[in-house]
Design goal:
Largest sheet: 8 strands, parallel, barrel
Distance between the termini: 46 Å
Shape: globular
Structural class: alpha/beta
Helix content: 40-55%
Radius of gyration: 17 Å
CATH superfamily: Aldolase class I
CATH class: Alpha Beta
CATH topology: TIM Barrel
């Protein structure tokens, strides 16, 4: 691995081997999103707790302060929407020149294994790896399932993660699953970070699944809605930071959340 690749990965993954990525790219397929109507304002109180921001080029340019001292993971696949026929019908949306110009530390590409557009999205990933490897830019594969939430089980996730790694992804983002998540991670030869998926019913649920996933081998999280849609976003971000980087238990993180949410 060359110096540039190592350097960028070291920006994303802390010396303890763990990471907390904050995605705010949801508008690329679902438009205005609750609590993300003004992305720049949403992230201001949260960035002190996370390690990197996952964002589209449009929101990065228009809403994110260029003085931000956090690495950027640039969303580079898209072209579909919630009202379209199929969320899986994605293409690549961002050129290599744009990725370099925006000083991205990494890029993110969705793959839809098992969908009608499986081959297209896997080749999107391969093409972006081909382009970025020459410039030392890591590619994060996002094992998306679109509207088919029933696919979030270990056998499918393990398949999707392994294929993404085989195609050259340096990091894979996937969903946590209650059963056999350790097998998903064990079958993937590159680091795995957990996606948040739909907003959980309670802060306790978020803390529990994140803690469990880390114990089973994930190196961190890429959580958006379960943070900035929480009733106390900064408290949730602080509690998650404690689990990830301070090895806090669920109980300890819950106490941090409670204390932080009541602090003026």
């Amino acid at each position: 691995m060359d110096w540039g690749m190592k350097n960028r990965l070291s920006q994303l993954i802390r010396p303890d081997g763990r990471c907390f990525f904050m995605p705010i790219d949801h508008g690329y397929f679902q438009g205005p999103t609750s609590c993300l109507e003004r992305p720049g304002e949403t992230i201001k109180p949260l960035m002190q707790y996370c390690d990197a921001l996952f964002v589209t080029r449009g929101v990065l340019r228009s809403c994110v302060d260029p003085a931000l001292n956090k690495p950027i993971i640039l969303r580079v696949s898209g072209g579909t929407s919630m009202v379209g026929k199929d969320l899986a019908d994605e293409g690549l949306t961002t050129s290599l020149n744009e990725i370099i110009r925006l000083n991205a530390a990494a890029v993110g590409v969705s793959v839809f294994v098992g969908s009608e557009y499986e081959k297209q999205t896997l080749l999107n990933l391969a093409e972006m790896v081909n382009r970025c490897e020459d410039h030392g830019i890591p590619v994060m594969a996002v094992t998306a399932v679109g509207k088919e939430v029933e696919k979030r089980e270990a056998r499918y996730l393990a398949l999707a993660c392994r294929i993404a790694a085989e195609l050259g992804a340096r990091v894979v983002k996937t969903y946590w699953c209650e059963k056999d998540f350790d097998k998903v991670v064990a079958g993937c030869p590159v680091p795995v970070v957990m996606a948040g998926g739909p907003k959980c019913d309670s802060a306790q649920q978020v803390l529990e699944f994140v803690h469990d996933g880390l114990q089973k081998g994930a190196i961190g999280i890429n959580l958006g809605r379960n943070v900035w849609q929480d009733k106390s976003p900064a408290a949730m971000a602080r509690a998650l930071q404690a689990i990830i980087h301070e090895k806090a238990s669920v109980k300890q993180a819950g106490e941090i959340y409670k204390e932080s949410s009541t602090r003026k």
